[in-house]
Design a protein that fits this description.
The complex is a heterodimer of chains A (about 525) and B (about 500). Chain A has about 525 residues and is α/β, with parallel strands linked by helices. Chain A is about 35% helix and about 10% strand. Chain A folds into 3 domains: about 70 residues, no CATH class; about 240 residues, 3-Layer(aba) Sandwich (Aspartate Aminotransferase, domain 2); about 120 residues, Alpha-Beta Complex (Aspartate Aminotransferase, domain 1), CATH 3.90.1150.10. The longest helix of chain A is centred in the last third of the chain and has 37 residues. The radius of gyration of chain A is 26 Å and the shape is globular. In chain A, about 60% of the residues are buried. By secondary structure, chain B is α/β, with parallel strands linked by helices. Chain B is globular and about 80 Å long. The chains are: A alpha/beta (about 525), B alpha/beta (about 500). Chains A and B meet through α2, α3, α4, α5 and α6 of A and α2, α3, α4, α5 and α6 of B.
Chain lengths: ~525, ~500
């Protein structure tokens, strides 16, 4: 069967979509304000109340009373809706694009039924402090989802309170600190070891939690360096915080030895499972001996990414560390679910109430729709898609997949356009901007760019063979342009909502403008009034 | 059937490490067997969310890459790390219909604040959520986007820039971050920012703080800050200025207080407090409920340097605590801006005249750019709630925010007056102005809050949050919350029920 890209014919040009993103030239919302218009009316105060209490706000002490009028936009409801609809059209959600260019982020389809379920009043209209007997349903879902994660990871106890992945990583670092402190090791164990291809948050959260950070670089083949680890551990080692597979899509086959080395040095081992999508049901944290692990429910477990949250994080630990988990945890007493607040060794509250309950519900529903076999299908398909893409990508001139030569990858690959850049002067970021002209996202890598001119692709199970083919066709075309018409690439995007933005103001305190009011103060426009 | 399984196992690919899969099958081997059997019987499961679960496509792709099966791809996962049998998970509910029935069945065990009359607050609030807020935040383009560039996700950048801009108006400040997780994180980061800006290592926190916020600050600031608690005036609930004078020194990085406080009273000495802090070179950090600012002065007006809080009030459903997002706001000074860990979206010109472009301000601050050398850490937080709060503020406008604030205060005042007429009930606890929350003391009734709340439940009323364990000095007290959703009839219904319950 011909794929859609083979069938498409566009006047002899490459067989690509004649995409153009919506461009509404939409003003900033303050520019749409028309004094006197109202978007919604609050319920009026009833006479019986007004008569009894009078004007309460005017009786506020002077210091507490707002004196300057509030300069918010004044808009009727249709105008507000239209403005945001237009902005939404100027955004490329996963539902619109072949979203495999945002590697490390596990962009996958968020099932609509789960969205519908999470938006019923049975969850949206629950206050977190209601009597426990009135929230048995949501507590049951939290409890059951914890049991699911215990099975997937092999660890003994989970907290679902974490706001997202980095929050879970921070809490893991905090638990490592609390564990050593409880053993009287405070101050002595002040080092956390991580790897350069683990997420930046593994390093940053450890530092924020008070540790010094030792970052291991890979060996020549791109695998975490066991000898470097052996040299790094000491009586100062508090723990190891590492992803596996790493953001290169390479699985560290010596991970159990890594854990062993750190354990022998007296440290704890945290498994950053942001990249769990390729290993569900294949291996799990317990197998390699990890003490803690986390999952991003907005990555592996399909909850929507929401332009950058709310996500949800789940942090799992072995029994010995469970007293340190955030408070409260959900427990089951045989006939009822309850919140256990009595946890004297806990690191305390890490997020408001019990976490992002709606996302726990979505994740639970997602697992229930798949079961154990379905989860395995997710992982197997994600790695199949990735290796299929890898093979097709490597057929494009100028691109390579550094490290682990000739090996298969797990669920993503960090590619390099180093050769193309050397030969054409076109950088990876510019390839991404040109790719946007064909309606897809593209991302380079976290910093620093260890892989030169990087690009990280993660084709999850949500994408079809035709999707993968189309994405590769786009990059093939852009690479070809880089060799034949590099200006076309260097001046991209051409079909986007906006054109190249002047970057200088963003790093200049006299020019940067983080709010509209700051912008007006700093530009001629504002000065003209 | 049995023969078939055996036969399929014979055809199984070799596992990595040279071991024959027949010797010790791992989970994936089991899967392959099962799948092969299913395929041979033409009943392979095709998953609606997984296009390439179609067996023909899968085979085609495997062949295309030269793999015998998916097992090949796991060559780097040693046999010792492999799961030997499939995960033990509940039976799947493959049809959407069955899934819906199952989940709705569980959720039906909840009783909501629509079914019962709720006076719960304490950090999560039942304000009216305009339909437009839900309409916008379920737009697929926003809901399913993530971290795109300003060129393909222009809408997200503009919507979050506008959110920050409208918050800036509400707070009278020029810098507002892309939302962090929640008000807890915003408070904890604000205190750490103050520590970095001043180079000092001590923070004074007023005891009327929300206990969850205090817990978060303790955990988050433990590595480099000493936290000391400040007493409050037992009569007014406001800061004991003499205690502040006694505790503050040139070591103090920040003083943090909430306005309104967790116990509901408004802090009317903000300007004096800020002056004392500034006299000692410290930073005044104020936590605020943004929905109060239609009528109340923004904290910067009485001297706050960093203002933080939670935006759940501004258009998010309660969601059992899932609707939270935090904001941090400061003046537009480099020494403040450079200490934010969060994303900050800025506006700038593009190569086309009159076109607005967006981007990250001072990106090199962040851990995305600098790993452990960045400020704290940044990651996925609560952006969608920021966009929604922007929609909310645009709908409300200045007049809506003012009317809402006035109405809430009037309702709260009405309820306080009515409650205090009940024998043995004191409301409010503190002699101070209040916004939407206030303490109610039941000592005079001889009844415990737990007992009263249990009785109220029979009236389908969720009574206020008990303060007895976290603030034992207040006796049998509860924190009641009133918003614009409460009608006079609702308030009277509570008063009638309480009258019966405590008599």
């Amino acid at each position: 069967m011909q794929s859609i890209t083979e069938k498409r014919y566009t006047d002899g040009r490459p067989n690509l979509r004649r995409f153009h993103q919506a461009k509404w030239d939409e003003p900033i919302i303050f520019e749409l304000s028309n004094p006197g218009e109202r978007g919604i009316l609050p319920p009026p105060i009833e006479d019986g109340i007004r008569d009894a209490v009078g004007d309460v706000a005017s009786a506020l002490p002077d210091m507490l009373r707002r004196k300057t009028p509030l300069d918010l936009p004044e808009m009727a409801q249709p105008q507000v809706v239209r403005h945001y609809m237009r902005l939404s059209q100027e955004n490329l959600g996963l539902d619109l694009n072949i979203d495999i260019g945002q590697g490390t982020c596990t962009m996958k389809y968020s099932p609509k039924i789960n969205e519908q379920l999470a938006r019923t009043p049975q969850i949206t209209e629950l206050h977190p402090l209601q009597p426990e007997e009135t929230v048995q349903g949501i507590l049951e879902i939290m409890y059951k989802f914890e049991q699911i994660l215990k099975e997937i990871s092999g660890l003994d106890r989970f907290s679902l309170q974490l706001g997202a992945g980095s929050a879970a990583i921070y809490a893991a670092a905090s638990i490592i600190r609390a564990y050593h402190a409880a053993r009287g090791d405070t101050g002595q164990r002040d080092e956390i070891i991580t790897t350069i291809f683990s997420h930046p948050s593994d390093a940053a959260c450890a530092k924020t939690a008070g540790f010094n950070v030792i970052t291991l670089y890979p060996d020549d083949d791109g695998y975490p360096d066991l000898n470097a680890l052996k040299e790094a551990v000491s009586e100062r080692t508090a723990g190891l915080m590492t992803a596996n597979p790493e953001d290169t899509g390479i699985f560290n086959p010596r991970i159990a030895e890594f854990v062993d080395v750190v354990h022998k040095a007296g440290g704890l081992c945290f498994y950053d499972q942001a990249n769990a999508n390729g290993v569900l049901g294949i291996t799990r944290a317990r197998k390699a001996g990890f003490d803690l692990c986390h999952f991003n429910l907005h990555k592996t477990f399909s909850t929507p990414h929401g332009c950058g949250g709310p996500g949800a994080g789940a942090l799992g630990v072995i029994e010995a560390l469970s007293p340190f988990l955030p408070t409260p945890v959900v427990a089951y007493a045989g006939n009822r679910y309850y919140l256990d607040h009595n946890r004297p060794q806990s690191i305390g509250k890490v997020r408001a109430f019990y976490g992002v309950a709606g996302n726990v519900l979505r994740a639970y529903a997602w697992v229930m729709s798949l079961g154990a076999e379905g989860l395995m299908e997710v992982s197997k398909t994600a790695v199949l898609n990735n290796n299929y893409l890898l093979k097709k990508m490597l057929e494009i001139p100028g691109v390579s997949a550094p490290y682990a030569k000739g090996k298969w990858r797990i669920e993503q690959v960090r590619y390099s356009w180093e050769k193309l850049c050397k030969e054409t002067g076109v950088h990876s970021e510019e390839i991404g901007l040109r790719a946007a002209d064909f309606g897809v996202h593209y991302w380079t890598s976290h910093h620093p760019f260890i892989v030169p001119e990087p690009c990280t692709l993660e084709p999850t199970e949500s994408f079809s063979k035709a999707d993968l083919d189309e994405y590769v066709e786009i990059l093939k075309h852009v690479a070809h342009e880089a060799y034949t018409d590099s200006d076309r690439v260097k001046t991209a995007p051409h079909n986007s909502t906006v054109h190249r933005t002047d970057q200088a103001p963003f790093d200049d305190p006299s020019q940067w403008a983080i709010t509209w009011r700051a912008y007006l103060k700093k530009t001629e426009r504002g000065k003209k009034g | 059937m049995r023969y078939k399984v055996w036969n399929m196992r014979r055809r199984c690919p070799k596992a990595s490490g040279g071991k024959d899969a027949l010797g010790e099958p791992n989970a994936i081997t089991w899967w392959l067997i099962k799948e092969a059997v299913r395929m041979s019987e033409n009943r392979a499961i095709v998953y609606p969310y997984i296009p390439n679960s179609v067996p023909r496509v899968k085979q085609e792709m495997l062949k295309g890459v030269g793999a015998r099966s998916e097992e090949d791809f796991y060559e780097d996962v040693p046999e010792a790390l492999r799961l030997k049998k499939p995960l033990n998970l509940p039976e799947s509910l493959l049809s959407e219909c069955a899934l819906k029935r199952h989940v709705e069945g569980i959720l039906s065990r909840n009783r909501t604040c629509q079914e019962c009359l709720s006076f719960l607050g304490a950090g999560c609030y039942q304000h009216h959520v305009p339909a437009v807020c839900d309409e916008i935040n379920q737009r697929s383009e926003f809901l399913t986007a993530y971290a795109g560039e300003p060129y393909d996700d222009h809408g997200r950048f503009q919507a979050l820039f506008e959110y920050a801009s409208m918050m800036g108006e509400l707070l009278n400040m020029d810098v507002v971050n892309v939302p962090t997780y929640d008000g807890l994180q915003a408070a904890a980061t604000s205190v750490r920012m103050a520590a970095r800006i001043t180079g000092r290592q001590e923070a004074l926190i007023v005891k009327t703080i929300h206990p969850a916020v205090l817990s978060k600050i303790r955990d988050y600031c433990a590595p480099n800050l000493q936290i000391r608690l400040l007493d409050y005036d037992a009569k007014t609930g406001q800061i004991d200025l003499s205690a502040l004078q006694a505790a503050i020194s040139s070591k103090t990085a920040a003083v943090y207080f909430e306005n309104p406080s967790h116990l509901g009273s408004l802090e009317a000495q903000g300007d004096e407090i800020a002056e004392i802090i500034h006299d000692h070179g410290g930073i005044c950090v104020v936590g605020v409920d943004p929905i109060s600012l239609g009528v109340m002065a923004p904290p910067v007006d009485y001297g706050a340097d960093i203002v933080c809080g939670d935006i759940q009030s501004l258009g998010m459903h309660m969601q059992f605590g899932g609707g939270h997002a935090g904001f941090i706001a400061t003046r537009d000074e480099e020494k403040y801006v450079m200490e934010y860990p969060s994303r900050l979206f800025g506006i700038a010109p593009t190569s086309v005249e009159g076109e607005y472009g967006f981007g990250d301000v001072a990106y090199e601050r962040t851990s995305f750019a600098e790993r452990e050398e960045g400020k704290e850490f940044v990651g996925t937080a609560s952006a969608l709630w920021g966009i929604t709060a922007g929609v909310y503020l645009a709908l409300m406008g200045p007049q809506g925010m003012q009317e809402l604030g006035e109405g809430v205060m009037q309702r709260a005042k009405y309820l306080m007056a009515k409650l205090s007429k009940i024998d043995g009930v004191k409301a409010p606890i503190f002699a101070a102005p209040h916004f939407k929350e206030f303490g109610v003391n039941f000592d005079g009734t001889g009844k415990a809050v737990a007992e009263i709340n249990a009785a109220l439940l029979n009236y389908k009323i969720f009574g206020g949050k008990s303060l007895t364990s976290e603030f034992p000095e207040l006796g049998e007290s509860a924190l009641y919350c009133v918003t614009e959703v409460h009608t006079k009839a609702d308030l009277d219904r509570l008063v009638d029920a309480l009258t019966e319950v405590v008599s």
